[in-house]
Amino acid sequence: MTVTGRFTSPDGTVLDKESLRQKYLEERDKRLRPDGNDQYLRLTGRFAHYLDDPYTPKTERAPKTDHVTVAFIGGGFAGLLTGARLREAGVDDVRIIEKGGGFGGTWYWNRYPGAQCDTASFVYMPLLEETGHMPTEKYAHAPEILEHCRRIAEHYGLYDDALFHTEVEDLEWDEARSRWIIRTNRGDEFTAQFVAMGTGPLHVPKLPGIAGIGSFRGHSFHTSRWDYDYTGGDPSGAPMERLAGKRVALIGTGATAVQCVPHLARACEELYVFQRTPSSVDVRNNQPTDSEWFAQIATPGWQQRWLENFTANQTSAVADEDLVMDGWTDIARRVRSKIMALPPEDFTPEKMAEAFENSDFEKMEEIRARVDSVVEDSETARKLKAWYRQLCKRPCFHDEYLQAYNVPGTHLVDTDGQGVERITENGVVAAGKEYEVDCVIYASGFEVGTEYTRRAGYDLTGRDGVKLSEYWAEGMRTLHGIHVHGFPNAFVVQPTQGANLISNIPHNLTEAGRTIALTIKHALDNGFDEIEVTKEAEDAWIELLLSGTGRLLGSPDCTPGYYNNEGQDSGLRGRLNVGYPQGAMAYFTYLDKWRSSGTFEGLAFR
Ligand code: NDP
């Protein structure tokens, strides 16, 4: 569909939409590369040390050879939420297996300076009501979130049987005994009647496949394994005094870099930020929580109301009052008001898409104008402007990132979409120029578009010896994103093929946790050995998912990144990477009814 012409944004700017579209396409085209996800390096072999845990020493323990009712793989929000719901349901025998040295998942690993939640704490931090915690800020910082993970684990007794620094290597269905055999890298071989897996969408760090990357003689690390021994400082933001006099290269300008750049800018003698694609960085406006206000809102059931309100404001056609009022709901509010302003005869898919596009152009113009208003050097400001639709990449919100480029000694090295050219013994080369540095920090993100089983680090062998990697060879197949035919008593905890709500992942996990706890409880109470989704129910769910309009995020005409599989068409696999066609809130409502009916439609209990 082509929609041409100009429009005047509320501040009076006349926008030539065709030129903007052209500019967006040029920016995409210069970044597209045939190797897609293969451009990145896996952290194995001589790069494996980048994965070492800098935070907790490993302790020896005897291998487990026993049996548990439920084993949960992953000690992040997914495991904590499902574990909590299981305990509430009276299922006490729950063992959480976690590769990190403690609970927290992404918040265990990501302790880089400035790490903070981009979604309002009141909806992002799970189980606030149950644990009685009041977030101290609208957007909590990482140490508080990590502490909250520990609080949840303690509150629900999840430490009791947890195995830390333990990676599952193999999961095998024992047909004769209706249980899973679990093998780990610590020599464990135990069984579980049920297994659930919440390994997280962003848990395998990756390095950019830059020529010469192994040759650097200085210090280097990935942001998800921050080396405070080298930098000084701590996750709470204490100054990184050991960087005084140091020249540091930061590679990447995604959501992580946006948060740590201001801290590095304050600490380093010289900071070089290597940029391939700028992030869109909108206003953050963080606030401490007013305890009187919190006492008023925190009435029974408050967090579920807030969760639903946040989701409804983004994914329903008509939304109530906006409780959270932030950058995420602002995006949806603008689109909705443009669509609602259309005359009745223009309520067509084309006109609605045009309204959506106009709203996006307007928002991105504001974000680009913000760069000019903050960054003093006009050339640096020009390079920091993002030329794509806002949901092409993770929207960022920060009040110190752009400002950091005004700090003497902070340099943006823009690579015009091409990325770093080479790494040498002494530093980083971009556009033919070598920047000598003492330290290279990789803010290069995590594996997303690779196979689920590769990222999980294990495959599942289900009924009749079928592997999950074989069953999902053409793409993921589930009911509700949770149950997989041929893999009885196994549950996946993640957003895809369910609500697929990206702005607040914990809401997906909250609902999945409830569903799994209820389902397991039903089996245990009624003496069933096995739970399995029927082939018919799974097929019908997939058909329903494919009847939708597809992914809203990262369309193919965006600059490449993990939101759009690095700009490559992944065929059916990509089309299956979707959520419920009517949107996240409609999915949660549907799932609630499914649970309340008590019939577990689509599941067979034996
Ligand atoms: P990203 O994948 O978003 O960013 C990686 C960065 O590395 C990109 O800027 C990428 O550029 C750049 N890069 C890759 N290869 C090269 C190269 N060869 N040369 C130069 N640059 C290169 O990872 P992040 O860790 O920043 O964020 C991952 C996700 O984690 C976020 O999208 C978000 O979902 C989550 N997150 C959430 C936060 C929150 O809620 N507060 C905070 C931080 C992260 P290019 O864009 O061109 O590929």
UniProtKB/TrEMBL annotation:
<dbReference type="InterPro" id="IPR036188">
    <property type="entry name" value="FAD/NAD-bd_sf"/>
</dbReference>
<keyword id="KW-0274">FAD</keyword>
<dbReference type="GO" id="GO:0016709">
    <property type="term" value="F:oxidoreductase activity, acting on paired donors, with incorporation or reduction of molecular oxygen, NAD(P)H as one donor, and incorporation of one atom of oxygen"/>
</dbReference>
<keyword id="KW-0560">Oxidoreductase</keyword>
<dbReference type="InterPro" id="IPR050775">
    <property type="entry name" value="FAD-binding_Monooxygenases"/>
</dbReference>
<keyword id="KW-0521">NADP</keyword>
<comment type="similarity">
    <text>Belongs to the FAD-binding monooxygenase family.</text>
</comment>
<keyword id="KW-0503">Monooxygenase</keyword>
<keyword id="KW-0285">Flavoprotein</keyword>
<protein>
    <submittedName>
        <fullName>Cyclohexanone monooxygenase</fullName>
    </submittedName>
</protein>
<dbReference type="Pfam" id="PF13738">
    <property type="entry name" value="Pyr_redox_3"/>
</dbReference>
